[in-house]
Amino acid sequence: MGGGKIVGILIFVVVVVSAAGGGGGENHHQQQQKWWKWMSSTSAAVVNPVVSSSIVLPLYGNVYPLGYYYVQLNIGQPSRPFFLDPDTGSDLTWLQCDAPCVRCTTAPHPFYKPNNDLVPCKDPLCASLHPAGYKCESPEQCDYQVDYADGGSSLGVLLNDVFHFNMTSGARMIPRLSLGCGYDQLPGQSYHPLDGVLGLGRGKTSIVSQLHSKGVVQNVVGHCLSGRGGGFLFFGDEVYDSSRIVWTPMAHDRMKHYSAGSGELIFGGKGTGLKNLFVVFDSGSSFSYLNAHTYEGFISLLKKELNGKPLRETKDDYTLPLCWKGRRPFKTINDVKKYFKQFALSFGNGWKSKAHFEIPPESYLIISSKGSVCLGVLNGTEAGLQNVNLIGDISMQDKMVIYDNEKQAIGWTSANCDRPPKSSNMIM
């Protein structure tokens, strides 16, 4: 598929033990290397609890044509900038690391220079990356390997370093957090030329979990992706008014992912009979995915709706699997959105009423460089996601989406994502 480069999936991180000798079926990685001492060192950073404040970071990028969003984090002493892929589908934050690199990909900045502050194998953060009963090859260090659904992976060692954050209160915080120093990377199908991944998931190693454990912010992470490109990412609960958010509980049986549990597909305001859909919110994916049965049903409804409209399917645009042409090339979504209906995922949340995650045409279609209109909802079964239905970046545009790990709920509301909030409880 010609559009494979922009079909980003960063989800379902599987952490496996990288046993010495490259065992465990992971023979694409060279033998785990023994860590050694580096010349650089950093001083400890003192963190005072300021949980009444939040961190807001600008986002860059877009769904199309770039295919991903990214955030700049300043890490180390002296502080250096790095561009990271913000991924709610995985936990571990890692940087391509000058270790030296066994295999590393092109990056926008010089590779991260590691320090001496290794996370030991017995540390609880290390334990959370490995299965129970994992035996330490080297007690003084924590080896990791993460594999992503698109075939990409990173292997390296966990260490601690200083992260530099400006709080909404005006304070400057420099907590010392754990991150992966990745010295062996394999790019996946959705390879993004970035310095690494920012893990925003529910596990202990995720940045939001670590910031919370150090008393910096509440255990809440959210994002606001602009359909015009850019947006903002935030940690903490001080940048929105909770009463204006649509909330639904996180699924407790899916502890690894941000899932709202079982959803139903609504099309044009009407039920479709496509129910019991396991739905995951994943900011590491450019596009949205439905399992094969649901996808086929959705396509059938779309085509029925387009019958008699001045659009015809085109086979000569490979941007995405399904594209339509008009009488002349389209310039913007506004040229075509009148032909398409809104759809939604409805969650029977056991609270006051059903929570509807509404997806208008501009949140599931793109205008390709050829002037076609293409469907940004893909067949997840074909992409290797099995029965998972995934809400990706395209469908979260122009919404504030919040993952509240304190009250175990996912929330959303329409928002202007072009303007990062400047003070408490601002969402517009």
Automatic annotation (TrEMBL):
This is Aspartic proteinase Asp1. Belongs to the peptidase A1 family. Keywords: Aspartyl protease, Hydrolase, Protease, Repeat, Signal. Residues 69-413 form the Peptidase A1 domain. The active site is at 87, 282. One of its GO terms (molecular function) is aspartic-type endopeptidase activity. Residues 1-19 form the signal peptide. One of its GO terms (biological process) is proteolysis. SUPFAM superfamilies: Acid proteases. Pfam families: TAXi_C, TAXi_N. The keyword Protease applies. InterPro entries: Aspartic_peptidase_A1, PEPTIDASE_A1, Peptidase_aspartic_dom_sf, TAXi_C, TAXi_N.
